[in-house]
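It would be a great kindness if you could assist me with a short task in structural biology. A protein sequence and the structure tokens that stand for its backbone fold form the material at issue. I should value your view on which stretches of the chain appear to form regular backbone elements. The record follows directly beneath this note.
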Amino acid sequence: MITGDLRNRIDSVRDAFWFGGILNPLEVILEGQRADGEFVTSLQSRAFTGEL
């Protein structure tokens, strides 16, 4: 079980997400991974067509 200072720090991060309108922080991680994948795909496509 997490207690003490670490628990308080985790709670403050969770509260920041919550008050910012993000109910599930995992959504932020997954969205970031999706955006990274799209960016890499775009770069690969541009490199293949000679646009880079």
